[in-house]
Design a protein that fits this description.
The chain is built from ten helices and 17 strands. It is of the alpha+beta class. About 15% of the residues have low confidence.
Length: about 425
């Protein structure tokens, strides 16, 4: 129904209805949805009632509310609702209005919100899989592998196991050398060989060493070997090489390879180094290497003589005493003594040491004394190193005589590598 029809309907209603009929119709309309009995309006005093306009809250209630609105007082102004100008004068604001009893008001229409199917949680049908089998996941059998791949894998595994020691050795060497690629010299220096094997050949610099064997001669114990210069020019021993001796994997001693002589081009000769009894008895493997003084272990002395700390080293018939001032060598004393009893070479050794003492007497600041008895002989040497040139000591070609100011650690390590025992 449009606005025009509604206005016509309202006008016709004004001519036909009275205030009494309006109250009766409002009472009937209000009581329609309620099943209870309400008091009759006739008993209430007739007063002007403010109409209640029901606004439809949804399309379903539109017709119901429309029928209710048709029974309302025609004096109501519907212009604010339907946008149509009302012909009636507005009610004065100060006019008192008597409220309609609560029982006579139209009941509030409650609209139940319809549930949104999209927001409802999905219901699980318990009977969905009760009577029907479903395949959830199918495990397919693995395909057979290529037999060639298996064969190659086992070949690789066998080769890896065979070369595993070499791989570990290279890895350890790289970790010790900072990851640098090892040279041929470094590889040879890192090898440990069985002592007594004549097939072993070790090369350091322009020198080649082979035929390492143990030799015992007249109470002296040696490691003998063959030394060859492989270069076309003479070789001078400007470095100190050592034979490091092992009892399996335990180091039991060192032997100094050093010579004041020059090895001719492509020349070779039989060399030997002295070792002490403990090293000789236990050694069964060896390694040839250069050991620089920075690698020498620290040595501490406990013997004191006046203002000097004293390192005493002995080997068979010889006793060496080294005197230090703040760990720097100052002087040396040597006492060499042999007895006649049981010594097959006594006479020869006596003459040799007598001549050697006479030679030492010719050196300034080198005091030597030879003492002989019926049963023994003794050579006493007292060397004041401060006033003896280094070249003079070098020309003597005696490894146990060290230059002035030599450090305690160097002397202790090198003299022990000549078979001496120091304390």
């Amino acid at each position: 129904m449009d606005n025009k029809d509604l206005n016509n309907k309202i006008d016709s209603t004004e001519e036909q209805n009275t205030s009494t009929s309006l109250n009766e119709e409002a009472s009937e309309t209000t009581q329609a949805p309620v099943q209870e009995e309400t008091p009759k309006l006739a008993e209430q005093p007739q007063t002007e009632v403010t109409p209640v306009i029901n606004i439809p809250e949804s399309n379903e209630k539109k017709e119901e509310v429309k029928s209710q609105n048709q029974t309302l007082n025609t004096n109501a102004d519907f212009s604010s609702i339907f946008g149509v100008a009302s012909e009636e004068k507005p009610v004065e604001e100060n006019k008192p209005v008597k409220e309609v009893p609560k029982e006579e008001l139209a009941p509030e229409v409650k609209v139940t919100e319809q549930p949104n199917p999209e927001k409802q949680p999905a219901k699980f049908n318990k009977d969905l899989f009760n009577n029907e089998e479903k395949i959830l996941y199918e495990i397919k059998p693995e395909k057979e592998g290529n037999p060639l791949v298996v064969v190659f894998f086992f070949i690789f595994l066998v080769v890896f196991i065979i070369f595993l020691p070499s791989i570990v050795k290279v890895a350890n060497f790289k970790s010790n050398t900072g990851g640098n690629t090892p040279t041929t010299k470094q590889e040879e220096e890192s090898d440990i060989y069985e002592l007594g094997s004549t097939a072993v050949r070790v090369k350091l610099d322009n020198l080649e060493f082979n035929n390492f064997v143990k030799i015992s001669d007249n109470d002296e114990l040696y490691i003998n070997f063959t030394l060859t210069n492989t270069a076309s020019q003479p070789y001078m021993f400007d470095k100190k090489y050592y034979i490091t001796l092992y009892d399996e994997e335990t180091i039991v001693g060192y032997a100094l390879i050093h010579s004041y002589d020059i090895v001719s081009a492509y020349g070779s000769y039989e060399a030997q180094v002295v070792v002490n009894e403990n090293t000789y008895r236990r050694a069964n493997h060896f390694k040839v290497e250069e050991i620089v003084p920075s690698r020498y272990p620290n040595k501490v002395t406990t013997e004191v003589d006046g203002d000097y700390n004293v390192l005493t080293c002995t080997h068979l018939n010889d006793e060496m005493k080294y005197y230090f001032n703040n760990s720097s060598l100052v002087k040396i004393t040597e006492t060499y003594k042999e007895t006649l009893e049981g010594n097959k070479n006594y006479s020869t050794d006596k003459e040799n040491y007598r001549n050697l003492s006479e030679k030492y007497k010719q050196i300034d600041h080198f005091n030597s004394t030879f003492v002989e008895t019926n049963t023994d002989f003794t050579m006493l040497n007292d060397i004041d190193l401060k006033d003896i040139p280094d070249k003079t000591l070098t020309d003597l070609k005696v490894y146990r005589y060290f230059r002035y100011s030599e450090q305690l650690n160097n002397i202790a390590f090198e003299i022990e590598a000549q078979g001496y025992t120091c304390r």
